[in-house]
Amino acid sequence: MESYRAIIIWLAVTVAVLFVLPVCVARFASTDAGMALCMILFLIVNPLYSAILGYRCGRNIRQMWSLPLISSISFFVGTWLFFNIREVWFSIYAATYLAIGWTAMGINKYL
User: Fold this and answer.
1) Which DSSP letter does residue 62 get?
2) What is the dihedral sign for C-alpha 24, 100, 43, 85?
């Protein structure tokens, strides 16, 4: 029962960090501030969140293995929907966040 509650909490945090934050940047920030905030999101916040999520998922890898995948898909959907750029490089960012999450998950599980 505890693991299902943890999964729901992590899903809510994932949606907040990787879906809602890009929406807020795209809608409320000015052009120059938006670019700076996007760089902070893409290069600091999202990789750090992916590592923390993956490390936490390594404790219960059987039930939580899909959370890094869900987080990278959430990032990809959020950026394609709300930035209106349709840039292919967002898929590379999403794959990188997935690799960071699964690597952190493996480090916690096997080391």
Assistant:
1) H
2) negative
- The predicted structure's pLDDT at residue 39: 92
**C-alpha torsion sign, points 69, 71, 77, 79:** negative
Q: How many angstroms separate the Cα of 33 from the Cα of each of 23, 71, 100? A: 14, 25, 27
Q: 14 near 53, Cβ under 8 Å?
A: yes
Read off φ and ψ for residue 87, nearest 5 degrees: -85, 135
- Give the residue ranges of DSSP H helices in 1-111: 2-15, 21-28, 31-40, 46-57, 61-64, 67-82, 89-110
For residue range 1-16, what is the model confidence (pLDDT) as tens digits?
568 899 999 999 999 9
Query: What integer pLDDT is reported at residue 77 of this predicted model?
Result: 87
Q: Tokens 């120059």 identify what position?
A: 32
What pLDDT is stored for residue 84 in this prediction? 74
Predicted confidence at residue 108, as pLDDT, reads 95
Joined tokens for residue 90: 């967002």
